[in-house]
Write a structure and sequence with these properties.
Chain A has about 375 residues and is α/β, with parallel strands linked by helices. Chain A contains 14 helices and eleven strands. A nine-stranded mixed β-sheet of chain A has the order 3-2-4-7-1-8-11-10-9, sandwiched between helices. Chain A has a two-stranded antiparallel ribbon with strand order 5-6. The mean pLDDT of chain A is about 95. At the A-B interface, helix 3, strand 3, helix 4, helix 5 and strand 8 of A face helix 3, strand 3, helix 4, helix 5 and strand 8 of B.
Chain lengths: ~375, ~375
């Protein structure tokens, strides 16, 4: 059973200090049902990606809670959490539910409210995605983790802070035209490098912001789409998922992301494609170094060559393989449990030819979503257009 | 693709104040690989049920973390959370992963560490399973929620505190012979009714305890089991899952559990059986009233008649349909994200004829796992023997 995308929707990623998860999710849901003949009554299952609701809002059990707010009170529901890959894991389980035959129509959504807490509490909450004993309790939080990876990468390869900054410049510039993006301001390499250091060699604009938001995707079996005359053109060609040690110290390398390599290999095999066939990608650029590692793991670049994509414009909107036309996590924002769902929203719009940063006639699109510093990765390959 | 159970294991449910989730999980994992030819290298995916690791241990991202501790570092991994139905939801997603063809071998595990926190913090953490705005913030925690349900049930039906207490007596007495149970002490109706009131009409022994523990199940496709000559006799005949409003105030009724009725109906249809064919059941008796509502929702009893099972001995070990031979949540304990996995462990042993409270020659077994006060319910029907 092939999974087909019936509808996608998203709030703008931003800070919503007066909102709640249920309100943000309701906004995305209202939009997702507005552009399809699928109704809430059709929904068999609701899968919700969320990372820190327990910590920020004292609210767990978001599967059932948000199924109700989606008008699908009786659907099978569950929350999925794989740190910042929660959204990707959520979408993949929705696809597997369709493929298993257990569901014909699934609402895969994500929501995260972060900005209502102070920055120390958000940093603490995010640190739960690291190994509490071997990282968090030793004072290592994510900017430091990615700074270690960036420093070692710069040591092993001929890559400068300016090269990494090119990723942020590209993605921030892409975000300018995306109304869903948190930032709409162009940056220069100088501005990135000279922004406030947060964990050297990474500066403020090497990092994604704290974001609130919700995204939602309705996935159906191809049979349901056909028998209900749904207007769909995008389907899931393949998925892959793999893991790695959570703590950086337990990895064989900190300048490669083997879980992403394995997940990509599985997704390419599942879709029956090679990396060269990907026309557009949304990848997990929580820090600039992360996009460099991503495009290497995906097979777009050899090890040590990934920064070239942004530096030489190959991953720009008019490049050979545009990466993060949405603005990515750096420019669009990163409501952590939502990002993987948001990537599907962006890529579906690309394949449907209606993205504000439209890539020319894409047929195959790829989403790469990472949890922690690489311990969880999900890859989705979409086809259409 | 049918899902087959290759191995089950569990720690004793107890309090382990010196332990951590990763240690408890490792104990269950060591045992689960000890009695099967499946090796950690065979594991394609690891699904982890956990509810309060973020709140009690500052540890999220338990999918990848515990996959690593299971020796399956590269497997696809995710944590699932549906409040106290997290274990049941986890097992069901593992089954769907097999049925979808995405995985041949899945480790479905659960872990919960609760007793290391003080009781106020545990009660607060559990309250995250309720609706934060309409219940938790108003001061309503789970003993109060279930007391409201019990009080209304006693008002509508001719049921006394003593009748409810009979459920606790039965389950505590069953737990005496179960080495995995937290309590091994017989109780009388008088002892239950006269125990410390926690939320009238419910007293201390009407409630399950705070428990730590981990359980693990290896599920494979029937094809993998066959081609690898695994010694398996128990398979998943069907599953069902449904939801309801999280807040009690939003329900049509508080003396019935319609999500459980829908989930059971779906599972019976999936398995092609009727309720009368169930030989043994493990149901979610977080409070005595919950087992009464469960056996009614499962179709074992008419509305208002459920207490009869325990009062008249029909759900006792030698009754017509034994319910909770393990001791249930009341006697065995309730490490919240684990319970649904633990039920599969217990029932597999029943179907394999090796349970310490063995029911005579069961062929069909049912697990009923509830999140919140009924907002999430998963049902699993196992066959074998």
């Amino acid at each position: 059973m092939t999974a087909t995308i019936a509808s996608v929707a998203s709030t703008k990623y931003d800070t919503y200090p007066e909102s709640s998860s249920r309100e943000l999710f309701s906004d995305a849901v209202a939009e997702v049902f507005g552009t399809t003949d699928v109704t809430p009554d059709d929904i068999d299952a609701v899968y919700v990606g969320n990372f820190m609701g327990d910590l920020i809002e004292d609210q767990g059990h978001m599967g059932a809670l948000l199924a109700d707010y989606a008008g699908a009170r009786e659907a099978a529901s569950v929350r999925l959490e794989s740190a910042c890959a929660s959204g990707g894991a959520t979408f993949r389980q929705a696809v597997l539910a369709i493929e298993s035959g257990a569901a014909d129509v699934v609402l895969a959504g994500g929501v995260e409210l972060m900005s209502t807490a102070n920055i120390e509490d958000v940093t603490d909450a995010l640190a739960n995605a690291a190994d509490d004993i071997y990282e968090n309790e030793q004072g290592l939080t994510f900017p430091g983790i990615y700074a270690l990876m960036a420093r070692r990468y710069m040591h092993e390869h001929d890559v400068s802070q300016e090269d990494l900054a090119a990723v942020s410049v590209k993605n921030h510039n892409n975000a300018v035209e995306n109304p869903l993006a948190q930032f709409q301001k162009e940056l220069t390499v100088e501005e990135v490098v000279e922004s406030k250091p947060i964990a050297t060699p990474l500066a403020l604009y090497d990092a994604c912001p704290v974001s609130d938001g919700a995204s939602a995707v309705i996935v159906t079996s191809d049979e349901f789409a056909r028998t209900h005359d749904l207007d769909t053109s995008v389907s899931v060609l393949g998925t892959g998922q793999s893991s790695d040690a959570v703590a950086l110290q337990d990895r064989q390398t900190i300048t490669e992301t083997p879980a992403a390599e394995r997940a990509a290999e599985a997704a390419y095999a599942d879709a029956g494609i090679s990396p060269e066939e990907v026309d557009v990608a949304e990848v997990h650029d929580c820090f600039t170094i992360a996009e460099v590692l991503a495009v290497e793991a995906l097979g777009f670049y050899e090890q040590g060559e990934g920064a070239r994509g942004a530096v030489e414009g190959e991953t720009a909107l008019d490049g050979s393989t545009p990466v993060n036309p949405s603005g990515g996590l750096l420019g669009k924002g990163h409501p952590v449990g939502v990002t993987g769902i948001g990537q599907i929203v962006e890529l579906t719009k690309q394949l449907e030819g209606r993205h504000p940063n439209q890539v020319p006639d894409p047929e195959i699109a790829l989403a790469h979503n990472v949890g922690g510093s690489g311990a969880s990765t999900t890859i989705t390959v979409l086809g259409g257009g």
